[in-house]
Amino acid sequence: MAESESGADKTEDPTDKRKRDSREKGEVIRSKELNTVAVMLAGTGAVLTYGGALAQTFLTLMQKSFTLPREVIMDERYMQIFLLQATKDAYMATQPILLALLIASLLSPLALGGWLFAAGGMAPKFGRLNPFTGIKRMFSVNSVIELLKAIGKFVVILMVALLVLHKDQLELLAIAKEPLDQAIIHSVQVVGWSSVWMAAGLLIVAAIDVPIQLYQGRQKLLMTKQEVRDEYKDAEGRPEVKGRIRQLQREASQRRMMANVPTADVIITNPTHYAVALKYDPEQGGAPVLLAKGTDFVALKIREIGVAHEIQLLESPALARSIYYSTEVDAQIPAGLYLAVAQVLAYVYQIRQHRAGRGKRPKPLDDLPIPEDLKRDADPDTPA
Question: Global pTM?
């Protein structure tokens, strides 16, 4: 019960993000034994295939080196030419073997872990300079496993070498009686086959090491329940962070909304709990636009800005609630409210004319025509 509650034990499978982060740090499953076996098999195979030509080339180079005439030895220019030619011949003879080793070293990682180019893996880790950490690693379970693998490799190679020597002892003794040319080529073949058998012996070590590396790699990536929850929160966004972002967005939107209130033509109120600010631009056409809306404190702020900028305030609880619930900020009012809002704007225009001394004061507006589907009944003293 305590284990499930605390989530301290790593019992959860790694997530895709955990695996991706691990690769970015250069932490991938690798088996040095598998890579070593692949390189040895490729190298010994190339020696068996091209060893005869390689031995013949080096034998020819040795013969040329020990049979140079005196006048050639004394000529510095000729010696440079001979050295360059000998280097070229040696390189061409060893090129197939070197190429086989290169291909094996490049392809062997694909069997386990794949290729990886991670800058995080090349970054210096100063924590490794701590001697206490180093001592701890020396006596860790992983160090014991590595020691057992080293002992196992030594025993396997020793046993295979003894078996090969016992099997080829007569052939090795016979090499001493063969002509030099034949003995060199024969020696290369014997060494090549001996290396093949020893590399094959290492396959046993690799077959044991690969499952161990897979198990250790998976254990290292396992996660606790709390880590899974934290990662999910980071991916989806922590509730407190998302709440703070929404709050900042609302505040920024409210500031923009309040900045537009001074340009309104009329502010319709509830009168206390609702306030909506409308603007109509005859040059652009279309319907009136809702510049701002709010309840309670926001409604009070809209009214204060309206009074400060001498914007006409009109009390119409039903219309204020209808506009508030049916229209978003910066959007046009719905078609069902065109007639009611038109009467309000006409009333505001007549009020302006009256204040300017160019007309009589209009009569107060009676019940405005609001469609039933847009009405929002509410107590005028409480917000809906």
Answer: 0.43
